[in-house]
Amino acid sequence: xxxxxxxxxxxxxxxxxxxxxxxxxAVKKGDxxxxxxxxxxxxxxxxALTNGKTVLMLCVWEGKTExxxxxxxxxxxINAKDASGKTPLMLAIWxxxxxxxxxxxxxxxxKNAKNSEGLGLAEIAQLTGNGEIIDYINSITx
Length: 142
Prior knowledge:
Elements: H1 2-15, H2 21-29, H3 32-38, H4 42-45, H5 55-62, H6 65-73, H7 88-94, H8 98-106, H9 121-128, H10 131-140
Helix pairs in contact: 2-3, 2-5, 5-6, 5-7, 7-8, 7-9, 9-10
């Protein structure tokens, strides 16, 4: 049983899509037309770097709201976790981007997620010191 599970995990890892340099460049530039030509499937929308950061996470970090919306429409995993257990929502809070925080919540992001250090949304919001983010997170997690 253990070998079967390991083999399945390895197979899934080998089939995982890694974002191309063209895709990463398009995201960083905010070039929606280039993103649309490089992200045409759910697999591409969920492409991840070796540290587990997905294309969606990169868009959140870069503050590319329209591309975040597009990736979600393409089936990007809104609750994916990177190697540190951070979700796209946690990254939006860290970047103090209230617009993306609200978008991710509206689209169903997990409000109870915790990172590998055991920090939830409210604790992360407190660390930023951003009053608007803190108030919003407190209002949705009660």
